[in-house]
Design a protein that fits this description.
There is one protein chain. This protein is α/β, with parallel strands linked by helices. It has 12 helices and 21 strands. The chain starts with 8 loop residues before the first strand and ends in a 7-residue tail after the last helix.
Length: 424
């Protein structure tokens, strides 16, 4: 498989560019490891959803866990997005990014009373509730504040894993959502509660989904439920189909967002629910292919069985390979000189764990001092970065045309120790 560059990344004059800026110049100016994002790539990804849903009442709530840097939230919020949050911390970020609270939905299985209170206080649009116990607590908290919390129940559609093996969160035996058979009675419970106001229904069947079929199956299951709930006199205003659409990391061929939504809306119409507002919670598909992580080759360590290419980015910066054996393409930012031999390398970081690798068995022509780009690093990389080994988190820059903005400074050792107290 040859290198496939994401949109807005090109090779010009033997150099890798993002929009109108060479990646080598960014590494030079800002150091490495460095996350670099194309604003145009994010807006293009968003535009595909907006096109797919153009003639419907809809709300696109970016799942900010994918990348929650303020400037990225601002980019998407200013282009019309709401936000899907999963913690009190994400709520504060969302507000700082300037989102209208009414466009915020709150997902997740373990919301605390404090988080509920704050979200009610600022007037978020909807809570996606995942259990009866959580529903009761939310109702009690809202009632004690003299409010009615807008709720949608996250249902577990139990889509068949045999036929769609990539789906993980929509199955019966995981912690997410309310079991299909309990949904109608839980809606009745919500509708009867003085602290709750039913507004919608929600499902999210998994992540990095590369086919339309599981979505179509899930839609059928959810619409069956809407029918049963409404037969009991409870109106479902919006239907939230979650996120999960995959991106091309390496030979993946997910449907485009607008093609997927054309198929889904046709089914919605055919079943007579085309008048409902559509909510979605995409994360990865909005930002994943808009970002790369630049890293410098520190040392080459050829060996008898393995050749190690030791770089300055590590599992703390980019945890997906270590956590999920995920594949990210890795390419040089400058075409290597003809006298550099191509060998097969394991690209590894400086962290003291064997699991600290970014790519295995990669044919690369590299020398120490070269700069490499880890592709498709816009989603679930910086947002999952840690300080393991007291490594400061990377800096981030956002490119738009030939404009470069530093959107996060590199974290210093002092930054990392700021909240700690020395023994007295
Ligand atoms: N909505 C809910 C309720 C979710 O749990 C998620 C992701 C999303 C929306 C957004 O899904 P997306 O469109 O990004 O697939 N760290 C993993 C992915 C975890 C996804 C968690 N939930 C990774 O790096 O692959």
């Amino acid at each position: 498989m040859t290198t496939e560059l994401p949109d807005f990344f090109t090779v010009r004059d033997h150099q890798l560019w993002v929009e109108g800026v060479s990646l080598a110049s960014l590494a030079q100016a800002h150091g490495t490891p460095l996350f670099v994002y194309s604003q145009a790539a994010m807006l293009q990804a968003l535009a595909a959803y907006q096109k797919g849903l153009a003639d419907r009442r809809h709300q696109i709530c970016y799942a900010m866990k994918a990348n929650s840097s303020l400037a990225i939230l601002q980019t998407l919020v200013r282009a019309g997005c709401g936000l899907d949050i999963v913690s009190g911390g994400e709520l504060e970020r969302a507000l700082r990014a300037g989102v209208s609270p009414s466009k915020v939905i709150f997902s997740g299985v373990g919301k605390t009373r404090t988080e509920m209170r704050r979200a009610l206080d600022v007037g978020i649009g909807c809570f996606n509730v995942e259990s009866v116990a959580e529903l009761d607590v939310l109702g009690e908290v809202a009632h004690s504040m003299g409010l009615r919390a807008p709720v949608s129940l996250r249902v577990n559609p139990n889509v068949d894993a045999q036929t769609h093996p990539y789906i993980s969160t929509g199955l019966k035996d995981n912690k997410f959502g309310i079991a299909h058979e309990d949904v109608v009675s839980t809606y009745q419970r919500a509708a009867a509660h003085p602290g709750l106001r039913v507004v919608g229904i929600d499902c999210h069947i998994g992540s990095q989904i590369t086919q339309a079929a599981p979505y179509l199956d899930a839609m059928d299951r959810v619409l069956d439920l809407v029918q049963a709930i409404e037969a009991g006199g409870i109106r479902i205003e919006h239907i939230d189909f979650g996120g999960g659409l995959g991106i091309n990391y390496h030979g993946d061929t997910p449907p485009s967002a607008d093609a997927l939504w054309q198929a889904l809306l046709a089914k919605l119409d055919a079943r007579g629910y085309g008048d409902r507002a559509i909510f979605i919670e995409p994360g990865r598909s909005l930002v994943g292919n808009a970002g790369v992580c630049l890293t410098e080759v520190l040392y080459l360590k050829p060996g008898e069985h393995k050749n190690f290419c030791i770089v300055d980015a590590a599992m703390n910066d980019l945890p997906r390979p270590a956590m999920y054996q995920a594949y990210h393409q890795i390419v040089p930012v400058q075409t290597p000189s003809a006298d550099t031999a191509t060998l097969t390398w394991d690209v590894v970081g400086p962290v003291c764990e064997s699991g600290d690798w970014l790519g295995r068995d990669r044919p690369l022509a590299v020398r120490s001092g070269d700069c490499l780009a880890v592709l498709s690093a816009g989603a679930y990389c910086m947002s999952m970065a840690s300080n393991y080994n007291t490594r400061g988190r990377a800096a981030e820059v956002l490119v738009s045309g030939d404009r470069v903005q530093v959107i996060r400074e590199r974290e210093s050792a002092d930054d990392q120790m700021r909240l700690e107290k020395s023994l007295s």
